[in-house]
């Protein structure tokens, strides 16, 4: 079980504000600032209107490095705190709890400043209209850049003029952010859009180390999943081969790089350099979820065990450090922590980095048979690029926090390391594993980074998919069982059955306090539905399919745009959210509309509901302009468009769920990456959920009492097959000698 969350402290505080009564770890971090903070809500809005004061809205999240910096520099400053409290109504917002509010004001900041990020600082009228915004501000003027105190003074002096400007900007944003389908329009042609998306990704691809820009470099799993899916329908073309190589090279280089935690598993947020070496050290749940899926997919298409091992490595980290006993998953681990030796100030990466002397002291044993009487430290330091003076370049360490430290990165293959020291590859693998285990034990004794124990519905949905998909591919019952536990957690703790509402988040200490909880947003529904569909395919237990259908019906009621098609990100009836947005970018997380387009398509095949097929088409039509001009912004939605175009294969296994012959056929299906398929079990029960929805399943039966597979597409099915290898060939080739209606 992970530890390190910010709990109650016996320390007496000079200041305590009303954030002390909140549950969000981010808000609690600011509960003792000398600022009169309010949480987002009616009390703050009423005060602003009554006193006719502008609002200062500060948005961040608990593991945000620069949020910590701005708090330390500005929000803990008595003088700045006094200016804020006397002249503004100050609101603190956790972007992970209220992504709807965050998106509105981030849209404003990006439109007016050309950039964005967190912490986000926005000034609003009492009517919540933004009039000026930015991100991090230094406390005092620095290098020609105005400091936070200067910005506050200027706003106080010019507030009337600035408010008028804000009113004009928000009206322009309402027009500029509208996404709608025109009458008679249909989705763009999938092959054309997919080709353009590939070309745009190829143009931005960095060939030496993989990835899609020089630096900073982000994992971007949505790009990698698109490229592999593109290859599955373009295997015989040079573009298809190039797409696959781009994805596999990127995944390999990330796994070897410092962005991958070689001692305690999992992936850090992003790399500050082009070689994936020095990361920003926070670890986010959504990255682990998507990367586990990307790596297991890479193992399916390449046959390389290396990629499967990385997928298991990610889930080992999540199971150990981000898992709650209830079955849910925590949100993140911070980048900053107190160094084991070296004062009370937190430093980025302190938990993860090593000096050469630490490594030498920990691994002093001479390795028998190694050239030059090499020690285990010599071999480890060679393999992982550890240098006596540290291996972090000054330009990657602007604050000097990593001076003399080493971020582990695989510099040589095990074959080269073995040759260098005159020992076998097997011996090198054994030695490196032993060294990593010893170093992991040392890390356990270091002060841990802050752990954000907030459990978000959307990110738990992504993680549900990861455990279900990796478990199914590997035939690992423990991983599938962990997915089942996560599904149970979501239903027990984040589903309010009485109100038929997904809850946005919950916390370990307050599971059963439903009344003040925030209702879920579009991404909560979409990601959970996707996770449930993946869980059904991993377990073939229809209870998960039934709940997915129930949630999709609810999602349609809450968020569907009857006029323009597609889904709004949040409840369109909430008057405190000024822009009704439809997320049009697959970024660190996929757009909920992208995921929904795929969910609708899959569910239409599971339930026979043709209206969901039509809704999926309407959604894709609403995003036609974006898909046509900049498909690189929506690679996950391009995958859904391709699924529409190529139509889903229905793979029906007739057999008993846990019987060995059924398991063998399922293993054949799961060994392949089939992005455009649905998998279902017909167990002979004509009263089952699936037979009630799809009566045709009742006509499919086992041959000679043996588990049997049917592969159907466009209302035509292959002849039944009972041999797993024959099924595998059928799925790979896509054709059979004889087909039946």
TrEMBL record:
InterPro entries (UniProt xref): 6-hairpin_glycosidase_sf, 6hp_glycosidase-like_sf, Ssp411, Ssp411-like_TRX, Thioredoxin-like_sf
Record Gene3D superfamilies: 1.50.10.10, Glutaredoxin
Pfam families reported in the protein's UniProt record: Thioredox_DsbH
Biological processes per GO annotation: carbohydrate metabolic process
Residue span(s) of domain Spermatogenesis-associated protein 20-like TRX: 16-159
PANTHER family xrefs: SPERMATOGENESIS-ASSOCIATED PROTEIN 20
Record protein name field: Spermatosis associated 20
Gene: SPATA20
